[in-house]
């Protein structure tokens, strides 16, 4: 998080992320932004495909 505040869920746990925080998830972990609690600036980083190397989000067909 660069600025702002978000409510997120990862693997059935809720977190409030603020400036300086990071949510790290393993491949296949459920994660979701639930609500922007303030105007937010963030960045998203993904690593290379591994395992079956399927493209797309885990819930997309």
Textual characterization of the structure:
The model has no long low-confidence stretch (mean pLDDT 85). The protein has one domain. The chain is mostly beta strands. The protein is 0% helix and 30% strand. It is globular, with a radius of gyration of 13 Å. Strands 2-1-3 form a 3-stranded antiparallel β-sheet, with no helix packed on it. This is Cupin 2 conserved barrel domain protein.
TL;DR of this structure?
It is built from no helices and three strands. It has strands at 5-10, 13-18, 31-36.
Task: Give me some keywords for this one.
about 0% helix; about 60 residues; globular; three-stranded antiparallel beta sheet; mainly beta; 3 strands
Radius of gyration (Å): 13 Å
What's the domain count? 1
Oligomeric state as shown: single chain
Written as H for each helix and E for each strand, in order along the chain, the element string is EEE
Q: What's the pLDDT, averaged over the residues? A: 85
Q: Could you estimate the helical fraction of the residues in percent?
A: under 10%
Number of strands: 3
Report the end-to-end length measured between terminal Cα atoms: 30 Å
What coarse outline follows from CA principal-axis ratios?
Answer: globular
What is the tally of helical segments?
Answer: 0
For the biggest sheet, the summary is: 3 strands, antiparallel
Unreliable stretches covering 5 or more consecutive residues: none
Judged by helices, strands and strand pairing, the structural class is: mainly beta
Strand order, sheet with most strands: 2-1-3
Q: Quote the beta fraction.
A: 25-35%
């Amino acid at each position: 998080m660069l600025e702002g505040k978000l409510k997120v869920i990862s693997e059935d746990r809720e977190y409030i992320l603020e400036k300086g925080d990071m949510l790290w998830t393993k491949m296949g972990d459920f994660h979701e932004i639930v609500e922007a609690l303030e105007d937010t600036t963030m960045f998203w980083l993904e690593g290379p495909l591994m395992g079956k190397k399927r493209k797309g989000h885990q819930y997309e067909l």
